[in-house]
Each structure stands twice: as structure tokens, then as C-alpha cells.
Amino acid sequence: MCYDKCARCIGHSLVWLAILCIVANILLYFPNGETRYASEDHLSRFVWFFSGIVGGGLLIFLPAFVFIGLEQGDCCGCCGHENCGKRCVMLSSVLVALIGIAGSGYCVIVAALGLAEGPICLDSSNQWNYTFANTEGQYLLDRSTWSQCVEPKHVVEWNASLFSILLALGGIEFILCLIQVINGVLGGICGYCCTHHQQYDC
């Protein structure tokens, strides 16, 4: 497979993953579809870190669109040397991939912290607090403890599901960007998939 076609495939995949990250992050603001918990500041603090919107979303769009556009790059005239344009473009894509790695890494870290701490909720003593903060994430394995959160209803399932989705999507984005780093280095060092005929046409 040509290096640019691999990058383009990665780019298209990243676009959809970024959109899903943004949607998942937005849903975290509306437990049970209600807006009052956000306005009353009764959401997990990690929701406000915008990990899915910024990290797994906006910071992923940049490398995604760059990767998609690699196939349309000029194959000649980089740095004054004929036929090395594609190599320069592939090497430069590595820098953009690092931005994607940073964004997806941020998404993964925040999602993991959000899962470990658990949601803020109204407990049986009528206090809003992080009921599962000291369980180090063990509450995820014991569904019987989830009833300690009285309000919002099913907030544990809501937070756990969406943060898990962000964790998984961010992890996939991280892997894809890492693959593009390797792909870009190989494309730049080993040469672009051009035949001798294409090189003479340039």
C-alpha cells in the first residue's frame, strides 16, 4: 500500500472518531437529557476539561484533514530537489500526527480520571459529593453500590458509559496517529510510491 493512501485512510477514520468524541463529551453535560445539572454545577469536574471536544475532537481534525490531503500533494520540487516533494510532505505529516497524539492522549487521561473518580451526585444524606472518589474505580465492578447516587438517576451508568466511550475512542485515535508517525517516517525515508514513469513526468 502506498504511504499516502494509508495516511488518507487514517485521516478519514480520525474524522469520524473525532465527531464521536465530541458527541460523547456533549452528552456528558446532560444526564438523563436534563440541562439543570450543568447550570447548577452538579457535573463531574472532568466533564469541564473538554477532553472529547478539544482533545479527541478539535485537535484530531487538524491531522485528519492533513492526512486526507496528502494524496493531492505535489510530488516534485521540495527544497529545490526534483521528485522529493512527497517525501517532505510525508515527513511533515509526522509533526501533525504528534499533535493528534497529544490530543488523543489528553482525551484518554481525562476519561480515565473521570472513570476512576466517578460522578458527583446527591447521596442518601442529601449531600452533593463524589461518592466513589475513594474507591479507586472499584465501584465500576460493584453495581450494588451505584444506588448510593440518588440524583441524577442512573448517573453512574451515564458517566461510566460515556467516559468509557471517550477512553476507547481516544485510545484508537492515539494508535492511528502513532501508525501515521511510522507511516510518515517510512514514506519520507524510504521514498514515495511513485514509479519511474511518474518521476519523469514531474
Automatic annotation (TrEMBL):
Pfam assignment, any one: L6_membrane
How does the record classify its membrane topology? Multi-pass membrane protein
Where are the coiled-coil regions? none
Which InterPro entries does this entry report, sorted A to Z? L6_membrane
At the top level, the lineage of the source is: Eukaryota
Q: Give the location in the cell.
A: Membrane
Which family does the record claim for this protein? Belongs to the L6 tetraspanin family.
Q: What is this protein called?
A: Transmembrane 4 L6 family member 1 isoform X1
Query: Lineage of the source organism?
Result: Eukaryota, Metazoa, Chordata, Craniata, Vertebrata
Protein encoded by which gene: TM4SF1
